[in-house]
Specification:
Aminopeptidase, binds coenzyme A, Protein containing GCN5-related N-acetyltransferase domain protein, 8-stranded mixed beta sheet, 4 helices, acyltransferase activity, transferring groups other than amino-acyl groups
Length: 176
């Protein structure tokens, strides 16, 4: 097993002490993602919407990052289809010390986290009475690192659709 292997555990309140000092960088996107996991949003999303949130640790127990999978109720197809419950990645982030690491792309932490989230989304989808055709997410169009990462995992930008504060929607086809 590689020293870069990550281990996923479902996030719970008791993990908050281990997150002291966790930071996805002091940038607009980084601060937003840090606040989501350090503040009340993550626990509220779990309690109110059944979102699953994982912390990813390395072999020495350091928290490398986090990710989440949940559902949203959006009109689908956007913008004016009927209201549908869809699988969705609310948030993910990697601590600044681990972004772009390790250099070996095969073990890149972003890749391990995305693989986990997509596998979990497919597994949740198999349990649904009405499977979701796509896994969706919102991304700030200026967040180049995130857009490149998602594109590597076959997420496509929906042309001409923005939501909230100008965020773009990306979709990844799930197994049916
Ligand atoms: C988005 C995030 C999870 C990606 O993790 P990462 O470790 O930086 O990912 P990678 O090293 O695999 O980089 C992804 C791609 O972006 C590129 N990249 C990294 N930083 C970049 C930057 N500042 N500007 C432009 N491209 C950048 C990388 O070169 C790579 O491109 P490639 O696939 O062509 O090689 C991480 O940067 C992060 O936590 N950011 C802050 C929180 C955030 O934005 N979360 C997502 C939205 S909620």
């Amino acid at each position: 097993m590689s020293e870069f292997q990550l281990y996923a555990d479902e996030f719970c309140e008791a993990d908050q002490v281990d997150l002291v000092g966790f930071s996805c960088r002091d940038t607009k996107h980084g601060r937003y993602c840090t606040e989501w996991i350090l503040g009340p949003d993550a626990m509220e999303s779990i309690a109110n919407y059944g979102t699953k949130v994982w912390l990813f640790r390395n072999a020495t127990g350091q928290i490398v990052g986090y990710g989440s999978v949940g559902t949203v109720r959006w009109r689908w197809p956007l913008p004016d289809g009927s209201y549908t419950s869809l699988l969705y990645i609310p948030m993910l982030g990697i601590d600044r010390r681990f972004q772009g690491q390790p250099p070996d792309a095969q073990w890149r932490y972003s890749r391990q986290i995305m693989n986990h989230l997509i596998a979990e989304a497919n597994s949740l989808n198999r349990e649904r009475k009405k499977p979701s055709e796509y896994l969706l997410l919102l991304v700030d169009p200026k967040n180049e690192a995130a857009i490149k990462l998602y594109a590597r995992f076959d997420f496509e930008l929906l042309p001409g659709v923005t939501r909230g504060l100008g965020h773009r929607v990306m979709k990844h086809r799930l197994y049916q």
